[in-house]
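2024-03-11 09:14:02 DEBUG pipeline.ingest accepted 1 chain
2024-03-11 09:14:02 DEBUG pipeline.ingest length=274
2024-03-11 09:14:03 DEBUG pipeline.predict start
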Amino acid sequence: MTGEHTTADDHGPGGTPRAPKKQRSFWKELPILIGIALVLALLIKTFLVQAFSIPSDSMQNTLQQGDRVLVDKLTPWFGSEPERGEVVVFHDPDNWLAGEPTTDPNALQTFLSWIGLMPSSEEKDLIKRVIGVGGDTVECNGTGPLKVNGKALDEASYVYAGNTPCSQDDQGGQFKEKVPEGYIWVMGDHRQNSRDSRYNRADKHNGMVPVKEVVGRAVVIAWPVNRWDTLPVPDTFDQSGLNAQPAAAGWTVAPQGLALAGVLPVVWWRRRKQ
């Protein structure tokens, strides 16, 4: 129309070519990208998953010393509590690790473990299998079987070959304990080589682990590559009549559902941008 002046997208007023925008140099963008990566790694470690290095043989053969596992830290944020049969990482509840050797990491190892790119070598954490939860009665007599609420567990699939479910000694291998609410009873799969709830009954929690000290559930063996595997709950913990009381509604499938819920808005936004 007369009196109107239009310009092409690549031209300025009067038809003069528009100067192309200068792209920021790679070296200027690199610190920003590194910063974003570090923040994401720290957020993932804090809220989602964290690597944990297996420090001993107490969980053989399920886990070997030196294995790296990934621990789900998401579901506890939504009220989920440990369940029987799960392999969990927890903070030392009352000096269980007294006398254990400690490592002296260098500055790089300390930094990488702080942001979650390496398992921490300084945190006083342990990893065991949950046998009893609040309200359960756990007991062992003779060489076994181990019982929960009077139901015998078939532990052949995970107890170390050659071990008996119960240890015959006078230090704690024979027991009958009621687990208080808010606590769990844990045992190692290598029964004759695990200082677990059985052998810490003189502590302030009577050998129980407060649920608040649980970091999360170990779900995957991530390293070494030839040992990649998941860590499911053994079938024996699904047997009928095991519950001392009706189980509360949990977040068993929360990680998958929440992950999907979190991804959908991102996918929608990206499609709108295209």
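2024-03-11 09:14:41 DEBUG pipeline.report DSSP finds three helices and twelve strands in the chain.
2024-03-11 09:14:41 DEBUG pipeline.predict end
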